[in-house]
Amino acid sequence: MSGRAWRFPALFIIPALITAGVVVQDSRTNATEETSVVQINEMIAVASPSDALSTTWYCPAGTATGDANGFAEQTVIVANANDVDSNGVITVIPEQGVPVTKNISVPAHGRTQVRVSDVAKSPWASALVEVSGGMVTVNHELRGPAGRSMSACASSPSTTWYFPAGTSIAGSRSVLALFNPFPGEATVDISFDTEDGARTPQQLQGMVVPGGRVTIVEVSQIVTLRERVALTVSARIGRIVAEQVLSVDGRGGADHGLTSVLGATIAAPVWTFPVATPAAVDANERIAVFNPGDTDSDVEVQVLLDDPSVNGTVEPFEVSVPAHRSTEINLVSDARIPASVGRWLVVRTIDGSSVVAERWIGSPRSAASGGLTLTMGIPVVATTWLGPLGTGPDLSMSQLVIANPSASDTATISMRLHSKGRAIDVGSVSNFRLLPGQRTVINMASLLVGRLDSSYVIESDFPVVVGQWMQSSSSLDFITLSPFPLRGTLTMPMNVITSSSISEIDLSQIPEDNSVTSSTSTPVDGSMATTSSTSSLGSSTTTVSAAPN
Amino acid sequence: MSVSDPPSLQSSDPVGSVIDDIDEPESPAPAVVLVMVAHDPGWWFEDTLSSVALQDYPSLSVLVIDAQSPDADGLRTRVAATLPDAHLRRIPTNPGFGSSANEALVAVQGAVFYLFCHDDVRLAPDAVRLLVEEAYRSNAGIVGPKLVQWSDSQRLLSVGMGADRFGQPAPYVERGDLDQEQHDGVRDVFYIPGAATLVRTDLFEAVGGFDSEMSFHGEDLDLCWRAHVAGARVIAAPAAVVAHLEALGDRRPVDDRRRLQARHRLRAMRVSDSFGTRLRATPEAAMLSILEIVQAILLGRFRRARDISSAWMWNLRQRSSARTRRKSLALLRKVPDSEVHAFQARGSTRLSSFLRTRVVRSETAIGGRTLVSNLNAARSSTSFLVWLVIIGYMVVGSREVLLHGVPAVGDFQTFLSPGQMLSRWASGWQSVGLGVSSSAPSGFGFLGVIGGLLFGAVGLLRSLLILGLWPLGVIGIWRLTRPIGSGRSRLVATVAYVVIPIAPNALAQGQWGTLVVYGLLPWILIHFAAASGLSPFGAVGDPAGPGVRTRPLLHRVVTVGLLTAVGAAIDPALLPIVAFVGVGLVLGGLFAGQLAGAGRLLVIGFGGVVIALVLQLPWSFTFLNGWGAIVGVTSNGGYPLNIGDVLRFGTGPFGSGFIGWSVLFTAALPLFIGRRWRLGWSVRAWALALAGFCLAWVSGEGWLVGVLPSASSMLAASALGLAVAAGLGMAAFESDLPNYHFGWRQLISFLAAIAFVVSFVPALTASMSGRWELPRGDFNRSLVFLNEGTDQGVSRVLWIGDASALPLSGWALDAPTIDNLGDSRRLAYATTMGGTPSIAEQWAGAQTDTTAHLADALRTAAEGGTARLGALLAPMSVRYIVVPVAPAPDPYARSRSYVPTDLLSVLDAQLDLGAITVNPGVRVYRNAAWAPVFVEIAANQELPQGGTGLSDRTASLLGSGSAVLTEPDGYASWAGDISSGSSVYSALGGDDWKLEVDGVIAPSTPAFGWSRSFAVANEGSASILHETPPLRRYLLLGQVLLWIAAAVWLLRVRVRVEEDNDLSAIGAPDGLAKDKSIDRSSEEPEVQSNVSSNASGRDASPTAVDDILLAIVGETLAAAGREDDTEADETSSPGKETRTGRSGRRQRRSS
Fold first, then answer.
1. CA–CA separation, A323 vs A326, rounded Å?
2. CA distance B746 to B881
3. pLDDT per residue over B192-248, tens digit each?
4. B916 CB-contact burial (10 Å; exposed 0-12 / middle 13-18 / buried 19+)
5. Closest by Cβ to A1, choosing from B594, B690, B867
6. Number of Cβ pairs closer than 8 Å across A and B?
7. Is the dihedral of CA B240, B243, B249, B250 positive or negative?
8. Sign of torsion, CA B863 B868 B873 B879?
9. Does B914 contact A184 at a Cβ distance shorter than 8 Å?
10. Residue A332 CB burial class (10 angstroms; 0-12, 13-18, ≥19)
């Protein structure tokens, strides 16, 4: 077969192979790039899986004077949803002085609280919590004369922190805590945006944050008497953890309360707020949007009313946010939103740019109500969420909200409580479904009675978002708490529900058993738990009650 | 008797002679006795005798001396039949021509001239007369005729001969040249070839006749030299014509002739020079002999080396007789040596011929200087110019690198001293990763030996092995394309290989492995092509091309294996590439519908790889641990490889422009216009190129990552395929295009030519920087602090980042959460012991379970499992973590697309890692929790012995200890003082570690699952060292023996095959055998017809080691070497041998 050589096979094969390569190349080039896992994990405080070697948490802000009237006395709450005990240390890093460590042990399915001032006393102190294993979450509670706050501690430091919402009005105190847990010093720039424009005070440019220290910036003393103050912290060198503590004394009819919030580490095109002001609560609700980008951004705030088939839908708020500027949308003042209807929010950019969204809920202190809470939006969705239910006895209202922001996929949800060293099945809410755009609100107040160490794990077969609303009765205050998504289960929200997509949902897809069982009795740790719920398209409300164990 | 006296011949002493006496002359002409020495003459003898009988000289007598012919009666009968008046004298032995001819001194009286003749000459009828007339006219002592070929009297053999001061022949005319009377002037020459020499009898007697110690070869030189010293003239009289069959070659073996020539030339010099001249010339001759011996050894011509050396020994033994002849000559000396030297060639003929052939190596046809050969000479000039341009291009383009050295970028790391490299090679422990007990890479031994031969000049060695690979590959393709038979084709292929930007891109990015593939693959492909037997590399299908020679298939396999092993010693990825080349060529044959030779191609490919693996034993045992140990961890770095980049070879800063497509157009030409073997081989070349393109593109897309060698290495195969196709396009243009009617083929040929010229533009642009965009600096200066602080104990540096940015070889870090580099890049990690990388980290090998602990720690951090990575790395003695984000530090790096942002985020988030500001091109973290490699801790302090659940705070156990054994004591050995009652933790992986404290061996226990701690009972001087098992030493010894055996076997087989070919050619049945060259001009008018006979598929390809040496030393050295074999013929000329090639040699031997 060594005769005359063939010419045409080669002339056919060579162009064919090259053409095939070009076609495949083009198809792959069109694929969109995904946000990396590390980036997603740094967008929000996340919990580590159970096989993690150790978990580290950073609680930047709080006073540790030991004085009952301290401005924001800090207590660290460590919850363990794992099957094994978790041991570790808490290192209290004072504003001045030497860090002090204390060994801690968190029992399996249990919780431990540490008053920071019990470890070390300091006007301000940060807490570094290092515990073995995963499935551990850390929150910190701040109590002071202005009120009470509970917020998540950070699971990772970052170079950038955004705080779109804030104020420096009369009677307010805004404190920015910059915690540098690393050996080397960090250098940061802090800038502000107010209704009068952007400010970059010289003393806050190139500010050194020493290693292993917390640095406090009294924002309200630098940017005075401004209704709206957005903060940006950017580290030139190193990484830090930044948290804002805000108190308003309610003078002049202003909101009254104490709140703390971790900044957002990254801008994103979609932010969800599964918890909005409950229908029964009268409060101011504002959405602050900050655009850190170099171009103006068109933002849409979608208010998703519960039961849209009955309550209808709300035309989205649209606002343009200039580059490096912030803006606010007052939801309460708009008549389109019925005050008596439960709702949740989605903030998205129309042009796909990235912004940061934060919500302000506040109310003047009255006999029955009042408080202040700042909540950073959730830029991700996840299939597993962990969170503490908060202290029980003084809560007048505790709602756990699970929302499915997808416009097309139904999520099947299950929930477990962890308390007294074991996981507790909570009956029917352990397995239910959420339609696209639907959220469920679970009233948990009665369940918390007698369960001071409780925490929960929510699992879903499709990514959802979870939020928590609490209202304390002993010290009137609003508390919004963002649970922790489990590392490895996070994704960026895709195909998010819109008002138009709600109307496009085919009702025939709704299965008959969509509603949570109206009344179910489930043994809970030797006692009985009773759930009752109502459900319709777009929302459901479930009440879980159980006899104290 | 005076010369003018009429000759008076006496009867010789007849020994069975037909004619018992020589008759008295009857003519007044000077008596001439033709002395013919005969020994078993062949078929030609009657012609010889007849020519003598036909002489028109009236006073000629004939004396035939029978030098012990086996058939004496037969000889007698043959002489009597033609020359009944001749005298026949038989001597009982065959002492050689000179000694036999000396019989005339005793057998002849009264003669005026002797005309000494071989028995294979044919004299023109007037030859004797003209010689005698010229002797009188010129008053010459020795006169010689014009020697022409027996078979073609129009072809010259010699018109007298010149020689240099060392007796090396220097012909005045070009052997085989067409006789156009251009050499017919009478002139003084240095000596007359012995075929026919007219000598005055008195002169002959005075100088003592021929040297009786010279049996064959050289006696004519000696005689004439002595005649010069005696003041006699030696002239050539071209009017007298003698045809010479040169049948002596049939009767003397090659070795014998070569040996005798060397001896006798040296003796002639030694006995003819005066004392002063001898004093100067002898050392010079000795030096030249040494050079020749070295050359012969390098070329594997051990017999040649032996002959040269034995010449000196023989002359030493013969010094007594030499002294005697010197004394006798001293009495005759009439002229000083300076006058004799006037007739000699200046300098060394051999050296001159070497230099001449080095400069002008042409593709001349056999035979004389015909029109074709003249054209070829013109081509040689073109080749010479093109080669000058290529060399100039490379030198100019590399000027800055040549002046300032090669920075330690990528794989171009600094070499260790030869001793250090050999120590690593001999050790059974390797420091890579966390340390592993395994066989050392052969590269250590390879480089150590070469470094030793260069007297430790490892910097020079490094530069040569980096910068020399490009020209090596270019020379390789020049050799590869030789059988195509067209000088222009070779030039096009060579230039195409140069302008394809594989080598500049590899240089720019420090890809040593790619350069190795680029440099060696053409040499390997030579053997693939030759083994296929397909025309023009063999005789299957069509006649073979120029210079094609035979080698056994096994020889080819071993040659490819040895070449592959040499390359794999630097980059093991060459192993799969060689196999891939075989498969690619077979696929090409399939596309072309020509499966002939496919089996042999596969055998060569896979057999060569197997041989290479065997030669790499015991190192190749480590390949069993993972494919990654062979292909390494690869990354396309900062240059994305889409299909367009792949096709334009844009793996680096060069080739991504639009003009990069031009080479493809050039290489496509033979697919359209080629015919016969040109089409077949162009399809194969394209198949090879396409296979490389496909795999490179697959790699660029991120598929089969970790399975394939680097994309640039695979594209080197594609570059070779395209370059060969381009050369074949030129051949098709020359030979096939004229056979087509005018049409589109002419148009695309024109376009291809334009594309070829256009392709020079980016290549020229690439040379502008003078360093091929290779960064001007490296990390060694920025990171010099890594080498400091050894007083705090031995430590490690962990390197992580894009594999293409790491300045050392490592392992893929399988950590998807932080590997956001892209599909075509890989995150890799590696370690160094206490400093910046060197050649010690060039070969990572397979990832071991021990080293995997590093990856586990990194993965744990990447997955958020810890914020104290430093503590996890503390038991591994990692003091610094270095993340290169560019191939070189600022401001040298051009690309910043390596930044592993997620990895940096994770490292930035570690509480015990402090970032150090060094340079924007690199991120460095200091581990606050680090512990030295050797830590002394309290005896009661127990370390975890392994298993799961190790805490990231275990390192605190080590942090409280103190560093010990801080003094390096050779490779894999440290020493220092240790206190009693303690434990010494050693962070060295691998087995066979032994800690001795004052001669007492400390017991050890496992620690952390991979290391160990030693319990020390007494204080004192301690040392820890790795004991290499004896078996491993034996294996290394076996490896050395294997390499030597393979090299020696290859050289011996090559020499044997060549000499067998040569000897078989001598035995041509008719003695007139024309050169068996295949006259391809009948079929392939464009191809030179200077091809050896090769029905069995011979090839011109060189062999293994000697070919590489040839390439480095100079291709023409081979020509000079081949010429050695042919010098048996006294009239051979090195320079002409080179031009006439093997075919010419073969022709001479045939005659």
1. 8
2. 62
3. 998 999 999 999 998 889 998 888 888 999 999 999 999 999 999 999 999 998 877
4. middle
5. B594
6. 153
7. negative
8. positive
9. yes
10. middle
- Which residues of chain A make contact with B540, given a CB cutoff of 8 A? 2
**A424 close to A456: Cβ distance less than 8 angstroms:** no
Q: Tell me whether A7 touches chain B (CB under 8 Å).
A: yes
Percentage of chain B lying above the pLDDT 90 cut: 35
A6-29 average pLDDT score = 82
Those of residues 266-285 in A touching chain B at CB distance below 8 A are: none
Q: Residue A127 above 90 pLDDT?
A: yes
On whether the pTM is more than 0.90, the answer is no
Chain position carrying tokens 């948290």: A243
Distance from C-alpha of B426 to C-alpha of B394, rounded to nearest angstrom: 37
A368 touches chain B (CB under 8 A): no
C-beta contacts of B279-288 below 8 A and 24+ residues apart: B281/B165, B281/B166, B284/B165, B284/B166, B284/B348, B285/B166, B286/B312, B288/B166, B288/B348, B288/B350, B288/B351
CB A2 to CB B868 under 8 A?
no
pLDDT score for A533: 42
What lies within 8 Å, CB to CB, of A281 at 6+ separation is: A363, A369, A397, A471, A478
Cβ separation A2–B643 shorter than 8 A: no
Answer for the pair B148, B156: CB distance below 8 angstroms, yes or no.
yes
CB contact under 8 A, A38 and B672: no
In whole angstroms, give the CA distance from residue B775 to residue B888. 6
Of B1115, B1135, B1074, residue with least CA distance to B364: B1135
Predicted-complex ipTM score:
0.88
Q: In the structure, what pLDDT confidence band is assigned to residue B715 with cuts at 50, 70 and 90?
A: very high
Query: Closest to A10 (Cβ–Cβ): which among B642, B671, B818?
Result: B671
A4-26 mean pLDDT: 84
Most B CBs within 10 Å: which of A1, A2, A55, as the mutation test of the B interface?
A2
Q: How far is B1043 from chain A (nearest CA, A)?
A: 37
Whether B902 sits inside 8 A of A39 (CB atoms) is yes
**β-bridge partners, A101:** A91
Q: What is the mean pLDDT of residues B850-869?
A: 89
Q: φ, ψ for residue B951 (rounded to 5)?
A: -85, 155
Determine the length of chain A. Answer: 549
Q: How far apart are CA B354 and CA B325, in angstroms?
A: 33
> pLDDT: is B811 or B1060 the higher one?
B811
Candidate from B534, B675, B865 with C-beta closest to A53 = B865
Chain A nearest-CA residue for B647: A18
Closest-CA residue of chain B to A181: B911
CA dist., res. B943 & res. B1012, Å (int): 9
DSSP code per residue over B34-94: EEEEESS--TTHHHHHHHHHT---SSEEEEEEEE--S-HHHHHHHHHHH-TT-EEEEESS-
Residues 6+ apart with CB under 8 A from B571: B512, B513, B516, B517, B632, B713
Q: Are A286 and A330 in contact (CB under 8 A)?
A: yes
A19, closest residue in chain B (CA to CA): B643
Please tell me which of the candidates B686, B701, B905 has its beta carbon nearest to residue A38.
Answer: B905
Give the Cβ contact number of residue B611 at 10 Å: 22
- Percentage of residues of chain B with pLDDT beyond 70: 84
Q: What pairing do the DSSP bridges indicate for beta strands B922-927 and A297-305?
A: unpaired
| Alpha carbon distance B561, B868 (integer Å) | 49
**Does A38 sit within 8 Å of B818, measured CB to CB?**
yes
CB contact under 8 A, A5 and B643: no
Flag if A2 and B863 touch (Cβ within 8 Å): no
pLDDT tens per residue across span B1002-1049: 998 888 888 888 988 888 889 999 988 898 889 999 999 999 999 988
